[in-house]
Design brief:
Glutaredoxin, binds FE2/S2 (inorganic) cluster, 8 helices, 173 residues, alpha+beta
Amino acid sequence: MNSTKCGCQTGENAEANFTELAPVLEKYAKVPGSLITILQQTQDIYGYLSLDAINYIAEKTGIMPAKIYGVATFYAQFRLQPIGKYLIMLCKGTACHVNGSDMIEEAVCEHLGIQDGETTEDGLFTLNNVACLGCCSLAPVMMVKTADGEETFGNLTKASVKKILDDYKAKNA
Ligand code: FES
């Protein structure tokens, strides 16, 4: 195994783990001002920015890992922890807000024991409040993203959102 004392992956091992990231780095590694784009695409691929990914990006771009880490922690859009199997994107846009999204958020938080941006201890759910999902006529709305795709739920009530979450839980019982 080719790893350093701090556990950071370098060399062939890292190459093997980051094959999907390689084309992104080929395209942007040497383009000035591309760090945010690289981090966005890395997060799109892996769901979050791991320390290994940050070190790999540093190796390929020549940017210090501390600087990359600083950028990743500065912007709220970046996650440094893995997300749950189900990423709940709860709309907090105007139409959803007017139609009770705060109440829906309260129900989700209460039911799962997490706040916005957190993941349940069992690794099943991550809650993310987001801006308009583009289906305002169904407000209040949430989208649940999984590895296989996404499902949108509208006209939510406290009861219906709890039922939806329980259905997801049941699939994993
Ligand atoms: S405001 Fe929620 S979908 Fe548009």
